[in-house]
Fold this protein.
Amino acid sequence: MGRTAKLWVVWLLSTLLGGAVLLAAMIFGGPLRANLLIGKTTGGHHQIELACEACHTSPFGGGEVLQEACVGCHKEELAAAKDSHPLKKFRDPRNADRLAKLDATRCVTCHREHKPEITGAMGVTLPGDYCKLCHENVAKDRPSHVGATFDTCASAGCHNYHDNRALYEDFLEQHAGEPDVKEPAVVELRVQENEAIEERKPLTTVDAANAPSDKLADHAITGEWLATAHSKAGVNCAGCHAPKKKAAAEIAAAWSDHPPAAVCAACHEHEEKSFTQGKHGMRLAAGMKSQVAGLFGVFRDAPLSPMPVALARLPMSEKAEGRELTCVSCHGAHDFDTTEAQVESCTGCHADEHTKAYAGSPHDKLWRAEIAGQGPKGTGVSCATCHLPRQAIEDPETYTERIVANHNQNDSLRPNEKMIRSVCMGCHGLQFSIDALADTGLIKRNFTGRPERHIKSIEWVMDRVRKGESKGP
Amino acid sequence: MRSLSKSAALACVSGAAVLCAGAIAAVSAKGVSYEDVADMLIAVMVADRTVYTTKVVNRLTKEKVITADEHFDDKKTLPLPAQMFRFGAELAADKTDKFSYSLLSLWPVNKQNAPRTDVEKAGLEFVAKDKDAKYTAKETLGGKKYFTAVYADVAVAPVCVSCHNAHKDSPRTDFKLGDVLGGVVIRIPMTE
């Protein structure tokens, strides 16, 4: 074989080898995978961008595969949001001409991933005037809309494509004329308390702790435990560190110094579920892997690590460098101080303008007053009051309701009108709430001051009600 | 009391008519004709809708037990009969693409429910003039051929009339019991 032929063989083999390595990295993951991303991911998905299979559930699937993945994660929240444009509305053949222009039966029509150059607010990758395609004649029915441009429908505080629970016409009418601040100004769900699911025997002394003796040397830890709801509910050391073990020998053998989040989830199911739906915990959701098993054992399953602060795209405090997000990141390992978890745990990492402006803000003053016992319960506004709000969850088996904190911080944030009903309107009127959330400067000042923007949607509705407007198609 | 009896009678007549239409459908070894399938479907739809409207909404509203409202979740009320019908259409569409149906009107409260195709417009105008007749046609939508049937949607109970006449988005406010409010459009994809 001549030299040229040998070089050809070497070139061919190295090309094939390189291709195989890239293909394996694409399908099974591993350290090379990060280099294969086809474009910067959106703020909503970058945390899980190396778990390609989360969205691309099959290497051979097309649009249907992606659609199933979108719906798999977002179906529940869209249903809860009373989605104004559910996919099923567009299946009717009478909409075929509309679908030809804009296929609203597929999420990726509006939300294309890995396309930073065309991605706008809410991860929308369409030009902002997309509403025009179906609502071109809206000004005929709504004279108030004459002159309004279609790129302002969903960007001016009046409408959202999916969630209009606080913005629909009759709701605006019903809440017109409300005062800026209600009396009393209370977030009701923060006042309500759950009844104990079952009677538990409180543990009140260190002697009751069932940890191995060598684990009981740190009195600070046992002291913290005795002060928590855990000890008061009869949850002993082994409950978390050696679940289901009773005898001392069994506990010692099964003991784990750092129990995984799954242990917390065994009791705090709703909190864990919402945590893994939000940006803080989505990397810990089931099936999120940076590497999947395959190729005759060459690749093994590797779950994503908890979200490192270093991966955050929002400004973070230097002090938080090296930290990552699990349950105990915010709640502590033994004190589980829910007061601290509502503010200090947030400000310990987040260092954006809004967070930094919280100290001294009207909400902060109310919070300080409440925790000092100078203000009624439910009147204080912590970070968690707005971003991890309490919500009533119904047990489908017993039809009983429990109040739980929604740990998906994005559930009330994008778009921010989602928090109007669940949070703002406990204390503020609808008009004030809409105006405040439309004022980006006020948000940066953490609501210190009054809204400088005014959204006219309520005025338009009331004007329409007074005139009794109605027109034919 | 008088209006209720009248509505019940109308409902019975309406239901009986469509049930008869379904009963005499020509079923053979070759299958059922598109028109007969549409007649069978409308029989069930009208029957269910009439029962919900008269036996649930109208009765409970009249007895001041509960009302029906467009925003039934927020107001803790019953869904409107038209909403019940639409929710059923959406659920059916989740289950099968062998047919679809929708509730449209020449005087829609929601302007998205105005006719959009020539067949819808012609069908709604046809049944508005004769509520006992049906309009059928073939149409091509999105490259697919459909057998389309349009049936009158009649105000079977006082709540239908009062709601449509009072709604601020209703372009017509002079409906009476027994009037045509709109039409049910059934589409069946044609395979031949």
User: Anything to note?
Assistant: Chain B has six helices and six strands. Chain B has one domain: 2-189. The interface with chain A takes residues 70-71, 73-74, 89-90, 93-94, 97, 100, 102, 106-108, 111-112, 114-117, 120, 141-144, 146, 168-171, 185, 187, 189 of chain B (CB under 8 Å).
